[in-house]
Amino acid sequence: MQLIDRWDIPSDFTDYWQSDEYVAYLESAGMHMIGSVGSRGYWITMKIFSFCKFVYADEEPSLSYIRSVTRMHGLVYWTPFRRINIPRGWNRVRRPFTTHCISKGFSNVSSDYIHVWNQRARRNIGRFFQSGCSVYEGASEEFKKGCALATFKPSFQRHYAQKVSEIPSHIRSIFICKKNDSIVGGLCVMRYANTSVHIASFLTKEGKNANAGTGLIDYWNRHAYKENLAYLHFGELGRQKIDDRTWQGFSDFKRNFIEYEVHFDDEYWRFF
User: Fold this and answer.
1) What is the spatial distance between Cα 231 and Cα 197, in angstroms, rounded to a whole number?
2) Residue 213, domain CATH
3) 136-191: per-residue pLDDT in tens?
4) Closest CA to 259 of 53, 117, 46
5) Are the CB atoms for 82 and 128 separated by under 8 Å?
6) Cα–chain center distance at 195
7) Whole-angstrom Cα distance, residue 265 to residue 92?
8) pTM here?
């Protein structure tokens, strides 16, 4: 894995928060989305006060536009994607008040993807192939059924199952891992532009013992290559103090397969 600077992100790689597909999903889930391509965000109203967040966008949010949409004053947060020359008037958000994960990971799609994996992942894929498990493209009901048996908290089980069911089926792919006719793992990804992004996943105790997570990542790589995609987006990495401790273990698992990691340490705010 290589740690790269934000300005070294490939020019044709964008974050899913700035994609039409993810924005459409968020709107269908009830979020108030604002802005246009390259400068998208969301807003919520708290009685006479509004909060807006522009996520991984390089175009400076327009305060007059925000006021015209929300029709009130409030606070706006802005997380740049590649940009480092921040205009005057913006104040840096200090921890622990940041509202985003500080790292993201992605890889190029290739037929020779295993050369990117670390030694642990390479060992585990061999163990997976000897475990008797199999992976195939499944349905949201199978994901929901398996998620209820996962090792994380029930609140996460319900959240992930609902999120997967809400992603439109024409941009969603669900991979299910079974052993002896029992679901032991699942992975849901979403396609946007030239990228496939990790949306949600789970493992049961038996799935962990069988390295089902590595098997699912292997299947995802092969699937993306067949679909002629350019990038795998592994999503957020790292853990803030407010997050559950299991999040860190999940991030460490993702790093077994990631080619590039990017840090987004800065976030900015101002009143509008």
Assistant:
1) 8
2) 3.40.630.30
3) 999 999 999 999 999 888 887 888 899 999 999 999 999 999 999 999 999 999 99
4) 117
5) no
6) 12
7) 10
8) 0.92
